[in-house]
Amino acid sequence: MVASEIRALFAVASRPEVVSLAGGMPYVTALPLDLVGELVADLVATRGSVALQYGSGQGDLALREQICEVMRMEGIEAGPDDVVVTVGSQQALDLITRIFIDPGDVVLAEGPSYVGALGTFSAYQAKVVHIAMDDHGLIPESLEETISAVQAAGERIKFLYTIPTFQNPAGVTLNEVRRRQVLEICRRAGVLVVEDNPYGLLGFDREPLRAMRADDPEGVVYLGSFSKTLAPGFRVGWALAPHAVRQKLVLAMESAVLSHSSFTQLAVGQYLATQPWREQIKSFRELYRERRDAMLAALDVLMPPGCTWTRPGGGFFVWATLPEGLDSKAMLPRAVAERVAFVPGTGFYTDGDGKRHMRLSYCYPEPDRIREGVRRLAGVVEQELQL
Ligand code: PMP
Question: In the structure, which protein residues have their CB atom closer than 6 angstroms to any atom of ligand 1?
Fold first, then answer.
């Protein structure tokens, strides 16, 4: 196990004078915190003997039913029996990897991909093979070629890990045609799909996209989370899996932690039952849309020629590409000296790629800070170009 680039950055980026475009922290201050406080106090007063007790390894049944209702917004029809509640979707990733991976097995993942997943895959000694992507998500032809090449080399592919909607870190979304193609390619090749979807309900311009799992219940393990639609502090996420996988997940869950915290599961359940959560998600969408707009407008005006970036339709992240010859990791200390932080692109690959890239997040700083951060960043890039 090695520390991720993001972890090493946290200490510097959290200094108040630094505008951090680095972390992916949701803006939880926008929640009605006193209401959440009342709800938690009421939970302990009225259902304390359950909330403070051990729970089932699969998770609270009422919460699993509510999770099914949340997933219906993305076209998923599933029952609570197929859901396992996990400690954030990060634990679901860990359990899935633990179940499937023997050292040397191959996991396919977009290039770039979520740093926390890559760390988990490496911890279990999986070999990650990246699949190329463009502005419409991963490229089906590249997936097909890679599967053939890996299988021809006699290596065993365990699953494709994909974040199809508002990807972390690239901010792009797999379009509908490609979703069908990717499912078909994986079905033909006997490759399971792990669809990680923490940002799916945070689209700015349209109704939620249909999840890949909605069209292939047997071929897809779907991972969801309340971290971005409610708050990460509850640490409540879930996996929706085909029956046989679900059984193993519960065993792995019990071996890891016996059961998830009953307290936070019930708190999330109570929140969903008593608060206008759809309205809350809508207001998060508006908040993040304004920040995305601030970042894109500032980049358009301020960044030197030769830089490009994605234009996310939702989620938290913009993926920027620097002109040929620049190295974002080498640039970072100079950026921090100018009081702005980002995550260098290499952390999102396992093969050393990503030097010219960086992830810029707009979820946490307020719009004025975002504009100031981009102004500082553009200045640093200008200086790099003159070195
Ligand atoms: N997957 C992706 C793509 C993420 O961006 C994150 C959080 N940054 C996670 C999983 C883990 O989130 P959590 O454990 O809070 O649900």
Answer: 24, 88-90, 114, 116, 163, 168, 196, 198, 225, 227, 232, 237
